[in-house]
Structure formats: C-alpha cells, structure tokens
C-alpha cells in the first residue's frame, strides 16, 4: 500500500522543514524508510510471497 498524501505531508513537515519542501534529502530518506517499513511488515504477515522477498534480498 503506497503512502497516503497525509502521511507524506507529515513526513516532510517533520523531516523536511515544511510540507512544501519535498526536495529535501532528509524528507526523501524518511519517506523511503517509511515505505521499506511498510513492505517489511507486509512480508512478515505474508510469508509465502517468495518473489517479492527474493527481489528485496537481491536489491
């Protein structure tokens, strides 16, 4: 599930300084970290998704 618009705004307000500052390195790293956390949680719940698990391990 992709990040919602509201969650993106909160991430950039917290790490980027403002919601309009979507180009900040800190905000983009925080956004990527959030997405990786979501994918990791999804894989823990659905252990039989072998292709995605293999793709992430080789990435």
Task: Please give the largest β-sheet.
Answer: none
The H/E string reads HHH
Structural class: mainly alpha
Poorly predicted runs = none
Query: How many β-strand stretches?
Result: 0
How far the N terminus sits from the C terminus, by CA atoms, comes to 20 Å
Annotation field: number of helices: 3
Rg, nearest Å = 14 Å
Overall geometry: elongated
Helix content: 55-70%
Domain unit count: 1
The percent range for strand residues is: under 5%
What's this model, at a glance?
The protein is mainly alpha-helical and 59 residues long.
Explain what this protein looks like in three dimensions:
The protein is mainly α and about 60 residues long. The protein has one domain. About 70% of the residues lie in helices and about 0% in strands. The mean pLDDT is about 85.
List the defining traits of the structure above.
single chain; 59 residues; mainly alpha
Q: How do the strands and helices of this protein lay out in sequence?
A:
Blueprint: H1 5-15, H2 25-45, H3 50-58
């Amino acid at each position: 599930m992709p990040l919602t618009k509201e969650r993106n705004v909160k991430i950039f307000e917290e790490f980027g300084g403002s919601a309009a500052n979507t180009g900040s390195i800190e905000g983009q790293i925080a956004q990527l970290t959030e997405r990786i956390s979501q994918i990791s949680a999804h894989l823990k719940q659905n252990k039989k998704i072998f292709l995605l698990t293999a793709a992430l391990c080789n990435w």
